[in-house]
Every structure is written in structure tokens, then in C-alpha cells.
TrEMBL record:
This is histidine kinase. It comes from the Bacteria. Residues 1-37 form the PAC domain. Transmembrane segments: none annotated. Residues 41-257 form the Histidine kinase domain.
Length: 261
């Protein structure tokens, strides 16, 4: 924007004022604010009907199951899965508006790190036939931090690993116990990410473009949200990847958050 700023000079050629700059920046900021505001209201409004849809679909699914009507139970189970996807998408949009508005809240508690990892793996494994292999989850370490938000980061990495790898391949998850932090890595043997694009995957709305990628659904928000969460927890998140070979996404967080955020 500064490039477009023009100096207003007096008779002696002295700059008395710049014009252009301020209005452009303000205008851009106002548009950003309106966008965030709209996203916030829209996702909030979408959440209520979707929550009630989910409740009805669950009741119907168990009714059909109980009466032995397996065909309809299967339809309802598919419907439930789609409603879950919708709920996650809305949740991501809500999180982004919270992050952009500086309103992402944390709720810290003490919890067993590897227990949490096991729980997330179990949940995600239920949704996929690909094998998630656990390695080195045998250390016991208590962490003081926001358990739910850390689960969210790990869920994102695992669901991406499943999404961006071929059907027959497996996923490996391993943890490391360091003096002041704990680390977890999710490795896949999928499509991978090329060099220059690797640095951008944590950006808001960024999705790698190309033949291989366009068939995968998504908003390009999961990694952005994950990196913001990890940043706020004073941790680090990174990726090593080779195109067509696979990716390893890792994050580490301090074992103790110093202040309530
Ligand atoms: P989404 O998956 O909804 O597009 P994300 O923010 O989770 O959004 O990821 C951003 C982009 O990074 C994805 O669109 C994809 O191109 C790339 N990506 C993420 N995880 C992987 C992975 N495990 N393997 C290959 N590419 C990935």
C-alpha cells in the first residue's frame, strides 16, 4: 500500500502530507473485519440447525438398528457421517474467526500425554480402514495444557495423513519425550508436498493445487488452526515431505504452560 502513497508537497517542494496510504489500509482492514464478522455470524447460525440435525439422525439410526431395519440404519449412519463433516467444517470456520479476532480461548488442565494420543488414534482409526501404527507410546508424561485443543491438532494431522495417502498405505504415529517438551509426529506414505509449497501449508485457506490434490475435499484451514494453537501454546509445528513419497508432520509443546491464556 505504501507503494501507492503519494506525497503532497508545498511550494518549496517539502512534503507536507502523504495521501493514499491511510485510506487504502483502512479500507482493507474494514473489509477484513467485515469478512471475519460475516464468517463468525454465518458459522454460528449454521451450528444450531446442524446440532439438532445430528441429534435427530442419531435417534433415527438407533431406532432403525433396534428394529432390525439395517438398510435404513445404514442410510442414517452415512447421514450421520456427513453431518459430522459439516460440524467440523463449521467448527473450523468458527475457530478461524476466533483466531483472527484474538478470541481463541484456552482451558488448561493436567493430563497424560500418551493416553491422550492413544485416545485420538482410536477415534480416528474408527473412521478409516487404513492402519495407524503406534510407536514409542510407552512413556508416561503428564502435560499441563489445553487437552482438547491439543487433541484437535493431532486429529487434524491424522485425518490429513489418511486423506492424502493411498488406500493401501499405512500411517505411523510416534511420540518423543524431551526434558521440557513432548513431541508427536504423524508419518504418511502419500502424495507428499513439494519444496516451495511446504512452507505455505500452514497459511490460512492455502491448499496445494495440482492434479493430485484437487480431488480431496477441504477448506485449507486445518493446518492454519493447528499452527495457531501450537503457537499460542509456545510450541512448534513443522513438516518434512517429499513429493510422491510422503510427509511427516510433527509438533512439540512445552510440558507446562506458564500462564493461563
Ligand atoms: P485441507 O486439508 O482442508 O485442504 P489443511 O490446512 O489441513 O486443509 O491442509 C492444507 C493443504 O496442505 C492441503 O490442502 C494439502 O494440499 C496439504 N496437506 C496437508 N496435509 C498433507 C499431507 N499429509 N500430505 C500431503 N499434503 C498435505
Amino acid at each position: 500500500f505504501l507503494v501507492r502513497a503519494l506525497p503532497l508537497k508545498d511550494a518549496e517542494g517539502k512534503i507536507v502530507k502523504w495521501y493514499g496510504t491511510n485510506t487504502d489500509v483502512q479500507h482493507q482492514k474494514e473489509l477484513e473485519r467485515q469478512k471475519d464478522n460475516f464468517l463468525g455470524i454465518a458459522s454460528h447460525e449454521l451450528k444450531t440447525p446442524v446440532t439438532s440435525l445430528k441429534a435427530y439422525a442419531q435417534v433415527l439410526e438407533s431406532m432403525f438398528k433396534r428394529s432390525g431395519d439395517l438398510k435404513n440404519a445404514d442410510f442414517l449412519s452415512r447421514m450421520n457421517k456427513q453431518v459430522d463433516r459439516l460440524t467440523n467444517l463449521i467448527g473450523d470456520l468458527l475457530d478461524v474467526t476466533k483466531i483472527n479476532g484474538g478470541r481463541l480461548q484456552f482451558n488448561h488442565s493436567t493430563f497424560g500425554f500418551n493416553e491422550m494420543v492413544e485416545e485420538v488414534v482410536e477415534d480416528v482409526q474408527r473412521t478409516s480402514s487404513k492402519q495407524i501404527i503406534k510407536k514409542n507410546l510407552n512413556f508416561k508424561r503428564e502435560v499441563f495444557g489445553d487437552r482438547e485443543r491439543i487433541c484437535q491438532v493431532l486429529t487434524n494431522l491424522l485425518t490429513n495423513a489418511l486423506k492424502y495417502s493411498p488406500d493401501a498405505s499405512e500411517i505411523v504415529i510416534y511420540t518423543e519425550d524431551h526434558e521440557n517438551n513432548v513431541q508427536v509426529c504423524v508419518q504418511d506414505y502419500g502424495i507428499g508436498i513439494s519444496g516451495e509449497k511446504k512452507d505455505r501449508v500452514f497459511e490460512q485457506f492455502y491448499r496445494v493445487s495440482g492434479n493430485k490434490q484437487h480431488t480431496f475435499p477441504g477448506l485449507g484451514l486445518g493446518l492454519y488452526i493447528s499452527s495457531e494453537i501450537v503457537k499460542r501454546l509456545n510450541g512448534k509445528i513443522w513438516v518434512n515431505s517429499v513429493e510422491d513419497k510422503g510427509s511427516t508432520f510433527c509438533f512439540s509443546i512445552p510440558i507446562r504452560q506458564e500462564t493461563a491464556l
